[in-house]
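Long-time lurker. I teach an intro course on protein structure, and each term I like to show students one example going from raw sequence to a predicted 3D structure in token notation. This year I'd like something fresh instead of my usual example. Would anyone be willing to generate the tokens for the chain below so I can use it in lecture? Attribution to the forum is fine with me.
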Amino acid sequence: MPLEHIHPMIAHFPIVLALLALAFDLWWLARGRAAAAPLIRLRTGTVLLALGAAAAVVAYLFGDMAYDIAVSKGVAAATLETHEDWGTATTLVYVASALVRLFLWWRRLDEKPAGIALAIALAAVVAGMVVITAYFGGHLVYDLGVNVSPRS
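-- Reply from a regular --
Happy to contribute to a lecture. Here you go:
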């Protein structure tokens, strides 16, 4: 398997995990925090966000390799820059958000209204950034055919 094909395979993990984390958080919030285990869903969102952050780092590293391969095949670096810039920013925000949420959990601040609001806001920001990054990545693959093997 060509090395440049690994990035688009791995990139789906941080996308799905970010969206699932936000979905769990919103579901927990919509239920009025009155479920039998009130924090389990919010903390499930934290675990999903942390796993997604780890996957985002791996996707970022393989994306950097895919970038170099695309440039070596003649794709203009400017064509890739928007996705790369969003990928870098998203990875940094993803990791920082996961660390903040883990800190909130560790200090039990996720049990207080301000901590809950911060946790859910972080998940929403990450999910939004991931969707934007994925949009630009999809444009590279589906519209421009970057690093896609030609059909034989």
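Some talking points for your students: The helical segments are 6-10, 12-30, 40-72, 77-106, 113-143. The longest helix spans residues 40-72.
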